[in-house]
Design brief:
heterodimer, A: mainly alpha, ABC transporter involved in vitamin B12 uptake, BtuC, two-stranded antiparallel ribbon, about 70% helix, B: alpha/beta, Rossmann fold, six-stranded mixed beta sheet, 9 helices, about 35% helix, about 25% strand
């Protein structure tokens, strides 16, 4: 888990795969309506949106080792704040996004002071408790819609003239945000801060005795992680012009944990895959099985935990897909691949 | 005096672990703390490095009272320690273990905006340390794959990488083979030329050959101190180690 990038080969292989995936995602809307229905674009959009949150989740849970069971609070706040700003302040997507980021930064800072005192199970429960506080508030506060949530949210604009209510601009906007989020997360992981985060995960005591203020660094990653969730929530408010209090619900927080574990945490790519699987699978299976589809997901989850605790990325690296790819694209580097 | 403790006492649940310890560690010297099991040696280390707070007393480091400071602040003052039970980052490479310690010397030690791949200064420092502790061949191995002796050396390397002024080693050779022990003695000697060292050890031959000064503890109190020869000829010390007839 959370291996460093030793050697240029793994990095260049990863770049290749990243570029390929990005290319597919960029070209995807061209096939819409011709090769497949518009519905798949909507499905992909959900993956792009939740993917941003999952990158932040992975920084906290995968790299720093602190699993949050309350990440929906950042998501929900990002959605509510943006929706309110589009209705009452300005129709610019940026205003909503920045206000969401601002409030979530405050929440991340204040709650960070409290959650940093706990680790492991206590951390999980404390984050869960705080997100429940947000859920109950949103559920009972009439001013922001109470149980009904916020409805009829106007579509924001990217720049005057380009409405994000239109599917295609919104798709590319979301893809752009995910790409930026991925780039930022990757940079954080490869920074000196990222290295210390992995240190905290493996042995916090040693980190302290080397002279690092680990609680401060944990608060920092908690806040950053929340900001990713905020962007995600804002995009969701744009995607569906309706923000229900269930955006704060524990089942959503639980789904994030599931996506992370399924894909393999501490890899950035893993949680993105986990997101894609849960969303795609959820959609396909629920058309046949209705509510019972969760049973399949649960089964898959159990299999994953039992046979591949580090998620699907572990299985893939065992199958050594990168070597397979390099055989497909490269010029037979069997001689050089020593290990 | 680099470090001085003043009437350090520690009680845990009615048990007195440390009793009125007054110790002085001279700059540039190698001081060893010896004593039977349960004498309070490791506890003393824990008090000095901020892992535990004493019930009473002060610890002066360069005329600054460091009691009550958190471990990371004490580490930043230049006090590095190794642990009795090997304390490393098991899933990181050997190189990265040293890097995470070495990067503390630079202002960007925990920066979000700097990239480790472009950080030549830390890498160079880490290479130096690896050469010093003789693990340059193992650089890309995961730390948990190393032998016990190599892990102990790695841990010492990490403590050295933060460029301490005062290095505290808790049984640096425990579990090592005779050959590894000999190599470690050489290492301690060469490091001791630049850094003040305080070590806890059980291996008498090691203690007698490398130390400038010995401090003997028993049941949390100081029995005696002095040069290795003085301590070896002390009757009370012989009693503790050999038992009363």
């Amino acid at each position: 888990m959370a291996d460093s990038d030793v050697g240029g080969r793994t990095v260049s292989n990863r770049r290749l795969i990243e570029a390929a995936i990005l290319l597919v995602l960029v070209l995807l809307p061209l096939g819409s309506g011709r090769l497949f229905s518009d519905f798949y674009i909507a499905l992909t959009l959900r993956i792009l949106i939740f993917g941003i949150l999952m990158l932040g989740f992975d920084l906290l849970a995968g790299y720093c080792g602190l699993v949050s069971f309350g990440h929906a609070m950042f998501f929900g706040t990002g959605a509510y704040v943006a929706a309110l700003s589009w209705r009452y302040l300005s129709d610019s997507v940026w205003v909503g996004m920045l206000l969401g980021l601002g409030l979530n930064a405050v929440i991340g800072y204040v709650l960070g002071l409290l959650v940093v005192r706990t680790r492991t199970v206590y951390f999980i429960f404390l984050t869960f408790a705080f997100s429940q506080f947000f859920f109950v508030t949103a559920n009972s506060w009439r001013l922001i819609g109470g149980t009904d949530g916020l409805t009829g949210i106007p579509a924001p604009t990217l720049v005057p003239g380009i409405s994000l209510g239109d599917r295609i601009p919104f798709y590319y906007f979301s893809l752009g945000m995910l790409t930026i989020a991925y780039w930022v997360a990757r940079r954080i992981v490869n920074s000196h801060f990222g290295r210390v985060l992995r240190g905290i995960h493996q042995n916090e005591e040693r980190v302290k005795f080397l002279g690092y203020n680990s609680p401060l660094l944990i608060r920092r990653v908690f806040l950053i992680s929340g900001l990713f969730g905020s962007v995600s929530g804002t995009l969701m408010a744009c995607f569906q012009p309706f923000v229900p209090p269930s955006y704060y619900h524990l089942s959503l927080s639980g789904e994030f944990v599931m996506m992370g574990l399924l894909g393999g945490m501490g890899t950035l790519v893993g949680p993105l895959m986990g997101t894609a699987i849960v969303i795609f699978l959820g959609d396909f299976l629920s058309t046949w099985l209705k509510e019972a589809w969760m049973l399949c997901l649960g089964g898959l989850y159990v299999v994953c935990v039992l046979f591949s605790p580090e998620g699907l990325t572990e299985i893939i690296s065992k199958l050594s897909a990168t070597r397979l790819l390099s055989k497909l694209f490269g010029r037979g580097d069997r001689h050089t691949s020593g290990n | 005096m680099l470090l001085r403790t003043e009437n350090i006492s520690l009680n845990i649940g009615g048990l007195q672990i440390l009793r009125d310890l007054n110790l002085e560690i001279a700059e540039g010297k190698i001081t060893s703390i010896i004593g039977p099991n349960g004498a309070g040696k490791t506890t003393l280390f824990n008090v000095i490095t901020g892992r535990m707070s004493p019930t009473r007393g002060q610890v002066w480091f360069k005329d600054k009272n460091i009691v009550g400071l958190s471990p990371f602040r004490i580490a930043r003052l230049g006090i590095a320690r190794s642990f009795q039970i090997t304390n490393i980052f098991e899933r990181m490479s050997v190189f990265e273990n040293v890097c995470i310690a070495a990067q503390t010397n630079f202002p960007y030690r925990s920066s979000i905006f700097s990239q480790v791949s472009k950080d030549v200064a830390t890498s160079r420092k880490a290479e130096e340390i690896l050469e010093l502790i003789g693990l340059e061949q193992m650089k890309n191995r995961r730390a948990r794959e190393l032998s016990h002796g190599d892990q102990r050396r790695l841990e010492m390397g990490m403590s050295l990488a933060i460029e301490p002024v005062f290095l505290m080693l808790d049984e640096p050779t425990s579990g090592m083979s005779p050959a590894e022990t000999a190599a470690t003695i050489d290492l301690i000697r060469s490091v001791g030329e630049k850094v003040t060292i305080c070590l806890i050890e059980h291996k008498m031959n090691l203690v007698m050959t490398v130390s400038d000064k010995l401090i003997v503890l028993n049941l949390g109190g100081k029995i005696t101190e002095g040069s290795p020869e003085e301590v070896a000829s002390d009757e009370r010390v012989q009693k503790i180690y050999l038992g009363t007839a």
